[in-house]
Design a protein that fits this description.
Elements (H helix, E strand, L loop, with lengths): L1 E9 L15 H4 L3 H6 L2 E6 L4 H10 L7 H8 L9 E12 L2 E4 L7 H10 L10 E4 L5 E6 L13 E2 L5 H13 L3 E9 L15 E4 L2 H9 L3 E4 L3 H12 L4 E5 L1 H7 L3 H18 L3 E7 L3 E2 L6 E2 L2 E6 L10 E2 L1 H10 L3
Parallel strand pairs: 1-11, 1-12, 2-16, 9-10, 9-11
Antiparallel strand pairs: 2-15, 3-4, 3-6, 3-8, 4-7, 5-6, 12-15, 13-14
Helix pairs in contact: 3-7, 3-11, 4-7, 9-10
Length: 336
């Protein structure tokens, strides 16, 4: 038995009813006996449009005051707290017919995109650029620059907005060389104020393939581990749980949703449950949660109330809606 708490984020697990599954959701069809047995207390809370918005309020009780790109820079170990530096999130997109079409199937051209972006970085040299790439050709760029453009954000396709300044020159040059494909910036900004985590969190270690969630955790002073492979995260989480609380992020649930593949989504939910059984059968305090819906029908995020399953009995009624800024404080007050 152990008293430390395991937080498990099933990113984007909620969904629309899916015609390919006879009107059911992948989450409804997924067989997850470990979750059902170990986390019988089911409540709901208010989802947010993006993971970083949800996680910041979940762990602190407050929405974030740091833009996404700056948080992700922290999650990738980049220097961002200097007031001179601004961060820019870059996401693969195809620019055509006056629209930005965000790409979640970039595997076919990912290596070429990364190489082309690197080849065109010279225009940014006067601003001391630093760039780190991650899943599918996504990247975070930081520069000594004060430009914070307001640009369209994924996952919804949007009318094309030309990126201003030298960053726009780089983005456009990549687009020309790759026949309309580029890494398009959004979520731009500088490091800002962060709130303290809620009481009761004990030496938390965050394990994820996503610099978004790791950036939130880093900004709160938690230890972070960037682990690309899903199966490798579980034994590392098991080891870390011996020394404190653990946040384990299953980002693949969201990724398969953006790919509009309900069968992969169901598979990764069931596979996660099998891995949880293997590594965490003796854990007393588990909190599973969902940050938003992601539709396998449209590929877009869904702003909705989201489920939370936990081993902790805090006296809530089944499916009671608990405010996001209060839910973790209440659960931790009632843990073993």
């Amino acid at each position: 038995m152990m008293s430390n708490t395991l937080f498990v984020l099933l990113d984007g697990a909620e969904d629309h009813p899916n015609p390919q599954m006879d009107g059911k959701k992948p989450l409804e069809l997924a067989e997850m006996p470990f979750l059902e047995r170990k986390a019988p207390n089911r409540i709901r809370t208010t989802g947010r449009g993006y993971t970083h918005l949800f996680l910041n309020e979940f762990f602190t009780g407050h929405p974030p005051e740091i833009p996404r790109a700056a948080l992700e820079a922290m999650g990738l170990g980049m220097s961002i707290k200097d007031d001179k530096r601004t961060a820019y999130r870059l996401s693969p997109a195809e620019i055509s017919d006056g629209m930005i079409h965000w790409s979640y199937h970039s595997a076919d051209y990912c290596d070429r995109l990364i190489s082309t972006v690197k080849d065109n970085m010279g225009v940014l040299d006067p601003y001391d650029p630093q760039i780190e790439f991650f899943i599918g050709g996504r990247a975070v760029l930081t520069m000594e620059c004060d430009d914070v453009p307001d640009l369209p954000a994924p996952p919804v396709d949007s009318p094309y907005v030309e990126v201003p300044g030298v960053l726009g020159e780089m983005v456009t040059s990549v687009m020309r060389e790759m026949d309309g494909i580029t890494d398009y910036p959004w979520g731009c900004g500088k490091f800002g104020h962060q709130y303290d985590p809620v009481p009761g969190i004990n030496k938390l270690t965050a394990i994820s393939d996503s610099p978004t969630s790791l950036g939130i955790c880093s900004s709160l002073g938690f230890d972070i581990k960037l682990i690309d492979d899903l199966d490798e995260r579980f034994p590392l989480a098991r080891e870390a749980l011996d020394h404190g609380d653990v946040f384990l992020h299953v980002d693949e649930v969201d990724e398969y949703s953006h790919q509009k593949d309900p069968f992969k989504k169901r598979w990764v939910l069931e596979h996660t449950d099998e891995m949880m059984e293997e590594y965490f059968s003796d854990v007393e305090n588990i909190i599973y949660f969902v940050d938003h819906g992601t539709s396998c029908v449209t590929g877009e995020h869904i702003l909705m109330d989201v489920p939370m399953w936990t081993s902790i009995d805090a006296g809530f009624e089944r499916d009671q809606l608990v405010p996001l800024n209060r839910v973790l404080t209440t659960l931790l007050e009632n843990k073993w």
